[in-house]
Amino acid sequence: MSNYKHNQKFFLILLIYLFVEVIILQKVIYIYFNGIISELFFLLVLFIPCIAITNYISFYKETFEEYGFHIHNPLIQLLYGIGLYAFIGLIFRSNFSSLPSISNSIANIIDKFNSHTVFNTLNIFFNALSEELIWRGFILKFLTQKNSIFCSIIITSILFGVMHFPVSFSFLQVINSCVISIVYCYLRIHSPEKFSIFSLTITHFLWNSALY
User: Fold this and answer.
1) Which contacts (CB < 8 Å, 24+ apart) does range 69-75 have?
2) Largest Cα–Cα distance of the chain, in whole Å?
3) Is there a contact between 189 and 149 (Cβ–Cβ < 8 Å)?
4) 43-53 per-position pLDDT tens digit
5) Which of helix, strand or coil describes residue 146?
6) Would you call 188 exposed, middle or buried from its count of C-beta atoms within 10 A (0-12, 13-18, 19+)?
7) Which end of the chain is least crowded, N or C, by CB within 10 Å?
8) In the predicted model, what is the mean pLDDT of residues 165-174?
9) What is the residue-wise DSSP string for 19-44?
């Protein structure tokens, strides 16, 4: 079997796993388990695809930097990650009045840090990191190998949005996730030094912390 067919097979298995993962988390883990048990299961299912992608990159002797995973100028990336969070917040708040104001969002984040344990905070961070590594890292890069950048961004973002449907069964959340992913993907492709997986993870982490 050619490398291309092997790659396609891996890509398909990864997508199936990601969608099954969401359903299992929402319909089994969070219903029948609670507390630290559910969080440990959550981390476990997150790490499995990340380990698989790491092995894939190593097996084909590619570099993590090709997939956007680098920390060049970390302070600059940190500032861009925070700035992107504020920018996206302004856009969404101008269209969805139900979203909290910037001051309320910041207060909510501080609140979460005060009320959450270190484990909870790391859990939110690793969730954001794994999603960025998988979607704006591996999946986006994989699709650009055989498709145009435009198609790759759209396909990645649609899949990312649909993956969020079992979380709340809300089409609005699917659309929101698609739009956010398009912005993330565009910046990852066109400004890789400023918007790597690291800076996008910062944005994603702050967004999740403010909303949940």
Assistant:
1) 69/133, 69/137, 69/196, 69/197, 69/198, 70/196, 70/197, 70/198, 71/196, 71/198, 72/193, 72/196, 73/193, 74/198
2) 56
3) yes
4) 888 899 999 99
5) coil
6) buried
7) N
8) 82
9) HHHHHHIIIIIHHH--HHHHHHHHHH
Distances (CA, A) of 174 to 59, 122, 160, 170: 34, 25, 8, 7
Decide if 187 contacts 194 (C-beta within 8 A).
Answer: yes
Asked if residues 193 and 112 have their Cβ atoms less than 8 Å apart, the reply is no
Place of tokens 């698989």: 52
pTM: 0.86
More confident residue, 107 or 120: 120
Provide the terminal-to-terminal Cα distance of the chain, rounded to the nearest Å. Answer: 45
CA distance 62 to 7: 13
